[in-house]
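Review form for a predicted model. The reviewer records the input and the model, then writes brief findings.
Reviewer: anonymous (R2)
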Amino acid sequence: MASIIALLALLFAAVFFTCALLLAAFIGSLLYMVVLHHRLKGAGLQREETLLSTPLPPDAELPHVVVQIPSFNEGGVLRRGVAAAAALDWPRDKLHIQILDDSTDETAELARTVAAELQARGCDVVTLQRTDRSGFKGGALHEAMQKTPYDYFAIFDVDYVPPVDFLRRCMRPFFAEPKTAFVQARFDFLNPHENALTEMQMVTLDAHLGIEQATRCWAGHPLPFNGTCGIWQRAAIDAGGGWKGDTVTEDLDLTYRGWIKGWRALFLTSVPVPGELPADTQTWLRQQQRWQDGFRHVSMRMFPAILGSHDITPSAKVAALLHICMSLNQPLLLIGLSAGFVAGLLAPQLVPLLLTIFFVTLGWVVFCATTFLRAGHNFIRGGEMSPPRFALVLLRYVAGQAATVGRTVIVFLKKAATKPKPIVFDRTPKKGG
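Model under review:
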């Protein structure tokens, strides 16, 4: 009996160590991104400047652009978003706006009203309202594409406010590099200092965009579309198999399907588009849960295709797999802690070793995450936040991650206790003040 207990203890300890090692590798990839960012920044920013200096053809020769604004029960924020799209500087006869409205509340009537007001001013605005939400945002984008013959689609979540010159700037790279799948602008924030939660989101998203996204672009790694503030061309969407609604992160899904087909994208650090951050904890937690779920859906779908591709280099495969498997952090953490706890109960003599591994891993995670977040803040905001204030934001970040893990456990237990349910897109409500 004692030998069986000892064997089980070693087995659980091995699981704990494996999870700690994988977690350290995933988080370590963020530190690698910081190093790579500093190495590639000069050439990357120079290339961006060159592409944004590409001359545009005369207005008569510019292509038609369709601005797509998905909406579901967004309320008054819809008017602001559509008005910003209608104000974009582009030939009036070549700017077309689609309000993709799946609303089931008073927003549906507001969408029709806003469209009618802009039509009276000579804008080409249509409201495409579906009787069901099949495919959610991906389904709405897919159906809307079939209703227009044009080749370029600028996509904005309804709470984002693009600057007037957005199209004049972001369409230029397509003329310099016609095989660009999409151009992704850096989204910025309308309410970054509303409270501690929005400040924490500003710091984490600046790191994601300024370090992770920018570096992926510069290094030629797969660049995920962020779902908003970008322009796709139809050929790339078609090559990737079109928008699909069987995942809650349709943007990540299409990105990887197109990337495997050889299409590459561009991230622009110097074109910010402000949008609204969720300002209450429950809304933010639901958003994080949706993103985590979506990453897992895409990773399970794309892992075999990436691994089995003969056209992708080994280094690019590693970069892609580390990226899409990042959603395994939380499961690894939960499995590892549970296994370590059981191993310690079964074999108390292993506790010192288990604690050493735990604290070494914890220290590594904190170091990598802090370096990553500060590097992003320095790059995007010029280090405007003082170290003490930044430390408070980090504490809020740790608390937020702990809350996210707790929510993941609760959601998992609820799913395990009930029958499987179809995928549901849980929108992030915005105030639009």
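Findings: The two ends are 66 Å apart (CA to CA).
Further findings: The chain has two domains: 2-38+318-417, 40-281.
Recommendation: see findings above.
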